[in-house]
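Something for you to look into today, if you have time. I want to see for myself how the chain folds. Leave the record below and I will have a look.
***
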Amino acid sequence: MWRAAGLLHDFDYERFPETHPAQGADELRRLGYPDDVVEAVLGHGHHTGVPRTSALARTVYACDEMSGFVIAVAYVRPNHSLDEVDVRAVTRKMRDPGFARQVPRDQLTRGAEELGIPFDEHVLNVVEGLKTARVALGL
């Protein structure tokens, strides 16, 4: 269920950017996905107004933008490797308003807060999690 929520939360974005993720949530319900997955998909953005009441929803929210940001940090490292990404590299890039400017910095920090863990621990968890898919990511 957790993997499904993580993989599916943005599946409708390119086709329905104006109504994302509501359009996708309707499709997930039609296909019989559990309410927990639908809630996580709906709650991963603020614009839906759907509260993140489950650990699954809070985790999808916390990892969504952070994963993309960490990958962006890896891309600008000399060897384009997650092995070169640590908490210090991520926090340094967060202070650079020109770097990955579309990523809302407040969502990066709020995600850790909603999970109830220190920010540095959250960054480390995301980096280590992404390393498990490093071959597929090319990092």
Summary: The first helix runs from residue 2 to 8. The chain has a mean pLDDT of 88. The two ends are 26 Å apart (CA to CA). The chain is about 60% helix and 0% strand.
